[in-house]
Every structure is written in structure tokens, then in C-alpha cells.
Amino acid sequence: MTDTKKDANAMWGGRFAAGPDAIMEAINASIGYDQRLAQQDITGSRAHAAMLAAQGIISDKDAEAIREGLLTVLSEIENGDFAFSTALEDIHMNVEARLKELIGEPAGRLHTARSRNDQVATDFRLWVRDQVDAAIEGLDALIRAFLDQAEAGADWVMPGFTHLQTAQPVTWGHHMMAYVEMFARDKSRFEDARRRMNESPLGAAALAGTGFDIDRHMTAEALGFDRPMANSLDAVSDRDHALEFLSCATICALHLSRFSEELVIWSSAQFRFVTLSDRFSTGSSIMPQKKNPDAAELIRAKIGRIMGAMVALFTVMKGLPLAYSKDMQEDKEQVFDAADNLMLSLAAMTGMVSDLTANRDALAAAASSGFSTATDLADWLVRELGLPFRDAHHVTGSLVALAEDKGCDLPDLSLDDLRSVHDAITEDVFNVLTVDASVASRTSYGGTAPVRVREQTAAWREKLS
Ligand code: ARG
């Protein structure tokens, strides 16, 4: 290019008499963050160049020079030898400008039948797809860690809570398997989103397609996409894939946050249900006795920024007319930050769960406090004495009040005590008042009985193998 005016942009400055104001450059440039797309940008450009040559749009010789030169650019970037320029705005123009320095004139042919609009849509989709794969892998490891815990403690009893008040005894394995279910749903959400996002925008050009005889199926296949996107306007303006990624990430972060909260409660001196490993705890600089669940607290908080990113991008995208608008450049930082923090949270949670020690004695002691077998008593009155459930509920309530008065738990009441409230009660009732009997009796599908838990752990083990 010989006619570029001094200071005007080397890539698009033909009609400009002057270069941009420094403030304009600052608000316009994305190179500070979109350099993370370098590998995807170069992979996309290499596929595009090969296709242009295969279609006879550029020569094989030029395509070869472009493809080789792009590999040199990539290695410069990966080795930290690349000087990113704000004047060149973004990763796409930085790469192309460097290619021009390296190989000269053929570099100018790369952008034939392409626009930065389909280029960035392609790069970003490839990047998000990689993150989806990383999330699936991270979830897989986390699910296995929960499964290990569930298998080890399929029959350990603990209190089950509603309203964080003792409700009914459950098994440790059952509680762990609840998270296996949640994180498996998260994984399937990412898998589902991946199928939908796996279409190629490349070749949509600026918005309307191109008059060149390109082969979009060829580039789609080279980039591992299932097919090209069917509508060029949609291809350059759609960010659903990023919105879906952030939505899946937000639900996953929510599940991570809930278990984090349980870990914070459970590891307190008042509960002592679990001990976190030293590897995933921190100390206090003033209180020597402290062992803090910082990782759990931070993961509990991460949903703030992940959901924030989701809300931010939804807000950016709403009301945008077709096709591309520069607003869409605001998609990247949100997704980068959310992805980084999701992956870190998954890894930290997997570490914590793998290292976690359940304190069986504390769990068992808590399980048998708080009249946790009251429902079992009411069920016994229904089954053995034929009482309507509402009456049984009332009788049991009176017995709980009696036990509370006496400062004991339900199994500690004498038969006379029990008969003082309902005279048909027999010795037999004591069989259902222990927590082990309680959990063993809950054999309905999906219930907490150890036999059911073991069926579930075996089924998941099989599914994951
Ligand atoms: N940096 C831009 C982005 O991220 C690339 C696309 C620019 N397209 C344009 N027509 N100015 O969105």
C-alpha cells in the first residue's frame, strides 16, 4: 500500500485524511484482551487460505506463503516475541499486518471473500468451544470425586436438613450423589450447547455472503464444525453460543456455590461434619487456632462475576439490529473472565472434595439428635396401628414434646412413656426409632437407603467408564 496517508489506519485508512484521536483509539482497540484469540484466529485464517487456493481464488503459491507465514506469527506470539499494536485495533489486524511484514504482497490476498465480522465470529466460537470442552472435562473430574465420596460412605448416617433444621436422617452417600446428579446435568447442558454452537460462521463475510466462489463446507470441516451456518446475517451477528456458555456456567457456578456453603457450615467447630485438608485451607494471621475454608468461600462468591458476565452480555446483545455492531466487541472480556473463574472453581472444588474427610462420629451423633426419626414413628403408627397419617402426626408430636420435657430423644423414652400418649404402642416400635433403621427403610426409588445409594453409585460408575 503506497497511498496510505500518514497516521491513517494502515488497514482501512484509504478514505481517511487523519488518524484517530488517542481517545478514539483507546475506546476502539480490543487488542489488550482479544490477543487471547490468536491461536483461533490463525487456525481460521489458515483454513480460509487453503480454501481460497482450492477454489482457484488465490494461487497455491500465495496460499502456501500465507499458511507458513501464519505459523511463524503464531510462534512469535506464543514465545512472547510479538509486539501488539493498539493502532492496529485487534488481533485480526495485528496478525495480518505482521504477516505482511513477513511475506509481503501475498498477505494482502488473505482477506479476500472475508470480513472481520465473520472472522471474529469464527475465532470466538472456536475459543468458546474449547472452553466448553474444558468445562466438560472439569465437571467429569468433579463428578468422579463426589462419586468416590459416595461409595466410601454409602451407609454413613448424617442429618438431612430442611430449613437447615434437622429433618430426617440421610446417608452421606446420598448427599454426595445429589451433587453427582447436579453436576452431571451441568455437564449435559454444556454438551448440548456444544452441539448447537458447532456451526461455522466463516464465509458469511461482512453480512451478505460473497460473490467469490468459496466453499464454506470445506472451511467448516477444517475447523471441526459440523456445518456452515445457514444464514450470513445470523452468522455474523449471533452470540447465542456465548450466551449459552455463560448460562451453563452460571447454573454450574450456582451448584458450586451451594456445596461451598455446605462446606463452610460443615467445617465449622459447631458442626465438625467434615475436615478440609491443609492443602485447601488457610490460616489466620492473628488467631493461631484458625483453619479457614477460603477456597469454599471464594467458590461460593464466584457466581457473582460469572452471573454478572451473563447479565452483561445479555444486556449488550438486547436490542441490537442485524447484523454486526461494534457493541459486540464487548462480548469477549466477560466470557474470558467467566471461563477463567469457572475452570478455577471446578479445579479447586475437585481438590477439596477429593481431600475431604467426613467425620463419621460427628455425623452419626448429629443424625440421632433433634428427633430425626419422628417421621419413622408416625409412619409406624400408620402401618402397624392403622392410624390415619394426620392422627399419627399428632400423636408423634405429643411424644416429641414429652421427650423434650424429659430432656431425652425419642428412642430413650420408655414403653410406658409411649403408651401414656397412645396405649396401643408396642415394644416393636423401638425397631424404627434408630437412625440406621430409618435410613435403611427409605428404599423407595431415589431414596436414601444404602441399597439404593449403592445402586446409584454403581450405575454412575458404569456410565462414566
Ligand atoms: N474487534 C472486533 C470485534 O471484536 C472485530 C470485528 C470488527 N468488525 C468491524 N466491522 N469493525 O468485534
TrEMBL record:
Enzyme class: lyase
Taxonomic classification: Bacteria, Pseudomonadati, Pseudomonadota, Alphaproteobacteria, Rhodobacterales
Record keywords, A-Z: Amino-acid biosynthesis, Arginine biosynthesis, Cytoplasm, Lyase
Molecular function per GO: argininosuccinate lyase activity
Protein name in UniProt: Argininosuccinate lyase
UniProt entry tagged with the keyword rRNA processing: no
Membership in a protein family: Belongs to the lyase 1 family. Argininosuccinate lyase subfamily.
A Pfam short name: ASL_C2
Cell compartments where the protein resides: Cytoplasm
Domain Argininosuccinate lyase C-terminal per the UniProt entry, residue ranges: 371-440
Chemical reaction(s) catalysed: 2-(N(omega)-L-arginino)succinate = fumarate + L-arginine
Residues covered by the Fumarate lyase N-terminal domain: 14-308
Designated gene of the protein: argH
PANTHER family named in the record: ARGININOSUCCINATE LYASE
Keyword field contains Lyase: yes
InterPro entries for the chain: Arg_succ_lyase_C, Argininosuccinate_lyase, Fumarate_lyase_CS, Fumarate_lyase_N
Source organism of this protein record: Maritimibacter dapengensis
Main location (coarse class): cytoplasm
Pathway assignment: Amino-acid biosynthesis; L-arginine biosynthesis; L-arginine from L-ornithine and carbamoyl phosphate: step 3/3
